[in-house]
Design brief:
The chain is about 30% helix and about 15% strand. The chain contains one helix and four strands, in the order αββββ. The chain has one helix spanning about 10-60; strands at about 115, 135-140, 155-165, 170-175. Keywords: Membrane, Transmembrane, Transmembrane helix.
């Protein structure tokens, strides 16, 4: 009787195929890691722009100044009888507004506000925007140079800085007029 030869893979061919598959997997994995990092950055930038726009809408929806009218600024402040808030006094108006955003009635009440993200009613939004933070500056900028003016005028610059979990800053700026 003739002996039958067994057919199959040798140990060397199996080891060689494992090495080749590992090399291929390594190449595919290293090419995908930068993409996942880019996707996270894209998600952060999208959330930051959404947050910046929402905060800016909340601020711009308020009247120009404590001393101006609620309907388009009429009556406008800046006259002798109704002066606008002094540049040194921009921020929360009195103790009743202290930390209570529901009582903010003009754009400069938000000056100096920073920290975790909250909605219009002061509810914490950390669940929607985890590890995001904001800081807000409001100042007079009559000559539109981006620098605070020493005197009050008819234009306030509102700057909202949103910081994402990776530390990237997204700065939003708008001018609110008193006309």
């Amino acid at each position: 009787m003739l002996a039958k030869h067994q057919r199959g893979f040798s140990l060397v061919s199996i080891v060689l195929s494992i090495v080749l598959m590992s090399a291929a997997l390594l190449i595919v994995t290293t090419s995908l890691v930068p993409r996942s990092q880019h996707n996270a950055e894209l998600m952060y930038s999208t959330k930051a722009s959404e947050l910046g726009a929402a905060v800016m809408d909340e601020i711009v929806g308020r009247q120009f100044d404590q001393n101006s009218g609620p309907n388009g600024g009429l009556p406008v402040c800046g006259s002798i009888s109704t002066p606008c808030t002094s540049p040194d006094d921009l921020g929360e108006d009195g103790d009743q507004e202290k930390g209570n955003r529901t009582l903010y009635n003009d754009v400069d009440d938000f000056n100096g506000l920073s920290g975790s993200v909250k909605d219009v009613l002061g509810n914490d939004l950390a669940g929607i925007y985890p590890n995001f933070s904001i800081s807000i500056k409001v100042f007079y900028d009559a000559n539109l140079d981006g620098e605070p003016d020493a005197i009050s005028g008819n234009r306030k610059r509102i700057v909202v800085d949103v910081v994402d979990p990776s530390g990237q800053h997204y700065v939003f700026s708008v001018i609110r007029g008193n006309y």
